[in-house]
Amino acid sequence: xxxxxxxxLLVCRVWAxxxxxxxxxxxxxxxxxxxxxxxxxxxxxxxxxSAMATxxxxxxxxxxxxxxxxxxxxxxxxxxxxxxxxxxxxxxxxVLQSTPKSRWNDQVLAYFAVSKLGEPPVDGKTxxxxxxLTAAFGKWxxxxxxxxxxxxxxxxxxxxSFQKQMLEKLIWIQHSCLLEHRxxxxxxxxxSQVSSLITELASAxxxxxxxxxxxxxxxxxCAYARSVAHFPTAVKEFKWRNGWFHSxxxxxxxxxxxxxxxxxxxxxxxxxxx
Length: 274
Hints:
This protein has helices spanning 68-75, 92-97, 141-150, 162-179, 188-209, 217-227, 243-254, 262-270, and strands spanning 10-15, 18-20, 35-40, 47-48, 56-57, 61-64, 82-84, 107-109, 112-113, 122-123, 135-137, 156-158. By secondary structure, the protein is an alpha+beta fold. The chain has a five-stranded mixed beta sheet. Strands 8-11-12 form a three-stranded mixed beta sheet, with helices on both faces. Strand 1 and strand 2 form a beta hairpin.
């Protein structure tokens, strides 16, 4: 696994915390719990109502993945969506290749959690970002934002790069799965471990991709962890989550260089993941 893979349409499957969307530039080793592929049609529909959504104009979509996130997105629609019940992480490449390249710049970074099929989502509004962290990029950003807003979820329309924010979310899913959301304001030792792992992963990602994260990364990720503390986490789907960072470690060690993620590697070994 070298660079981050090419994007895909709004795919609905939890994938390292990101929505597999129309232009998900996520690594073959990335993200987690939220990925969704929206092949959005160009016509606007009339106002839609559902148990979760207020009346709003929603663009009909082809939703790939019938899991928690896919079903939620369908419920926020107007009854004209097409739901394709397929959306495993390993299907990503095939979905991508069937998506017109003109759609590869449509991306969504999802900061909300759906713990069980049919349950309402918990928005990723935090004490550091009370207006929410979910963001949509590309031509159809307004269509995705409208759908999510109709369900009472926050979503910003962004013009800047998706990659940096995608990696930030990936860092969150890595540390939260390894440490099981152990964010305890009264435990300085534990919080130091959380902070250290975030810093380590951010440094490795920044060096690999030649980017700089915005100030306050640790605070943002810890705040989001607190907002979805009820959501169960575990180290799974290794290829799509921790795998990208572990590949950085393996490549560096193979070249006789220091491991850029020693704490991450040690935790994986402790859990007998590698």
